[in-house]
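--- STAGE predict ---
source: upstream dedup step, 1 unique chain passed
mode: sequence only
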Amino acid sequence: MSGVRLPASNHGHLDILCLSHLRWNWVFQRPQHLLTRAAASRRVFFFEEPIFETDSAARLQLSCPHARVTVATPVVPSGLRGAPLAAAVQRLLDLLIAQQGIDEYLSWYYTPMALQYSRHLTPVATVYDCMDQLSAFAGAPPEMLSLERELLSRSDVVFTGGHSLFEAKQRLHPHVYCFPSSVDVSHFMAARTCTVQPADQESIPRPRLGYCGVIDERLDLSLIASLAEARPRWHLVLVGPVTKVEERLLPSAANIHYLGAKSYESLPGYVAGWDVGLMPFARNEATRYISPTKTPEYLAAGKPVISTSIRDVVRSYGEPGFVRIADDLEPFIRAVEECLLEDPLVRLRKVDALLGRQSWDKTWSGMQSILDRVSAPIGLSAKAA
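--- STAGE serialize ---
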């Protein structure tokens, strides 16, 4: 659809030019939740990291996965690296801006690495929506930290995806706002009345202990393996793409089931068939600041939840009694046994009261009110939203 131009934004809201390390069509998570809501009143352009093709001239690949959202993927020749790669991507970014008439806009960053091809931009304001501490992830480029410092210095406002990130970033920027991961309550609540099982899960025996999300270095693979070995009649169902982990290193057993990546629309159907929702995260640098979206999603689906002691989960859900916390095998087993025996009606009453205060709509509304002020800044102050 090269050259197709979307109508300008309405309600006087600035366009958003988002620069992301995550692909729109990978896992539907924070960027998609927020930006589809942003698109109700403004144009959104989601500029992805480049893909490489042999014998391909540099070009833009455009798609419209949602009304008023344009996803732009730079396609560049294989072999480009360093400065030549950044220059090629910058030319394609400039082409997008020219083709679409992107004049007054907000630059919205999910990755500091995008500065390598976007620091020349002149937005009305710059937003850094920090959903992860990317420099702590496996394979993070060594320049990530210095580029994040530069991005913080350029940003007019910083949003964080959890309280631990907020505490880390508020020392580095004067205008930091905490917007923890939220939930589309009605979407996941459909799991409570779902009766039709996905075909690839239907034959898995119960009880089923389920996890949905990216399967990478943030999961405690040894805990998963030990749990499966200790309780061979419990079946562990893992739904999501595997990345940055070699297949040979994944736990393998008759009662561990990898079902692969699924669409966001199909997730409630999978969670509906579980007896317990698991968040078996490792405790390492990569998980120090995470605030998993799946916590309220499991709860909305009506499932009891067990997590390892991820700080944001402990503070927001563990200490108030919504999620059981266990790090080692024996406490984890006891937590599962408690979940399988508990009265769900008591839990659901508490959960529904909590979820009534959460939604992506409320999160975006709070962000938008800040963005409206950033467009003509007057006295912002750091705070937890």
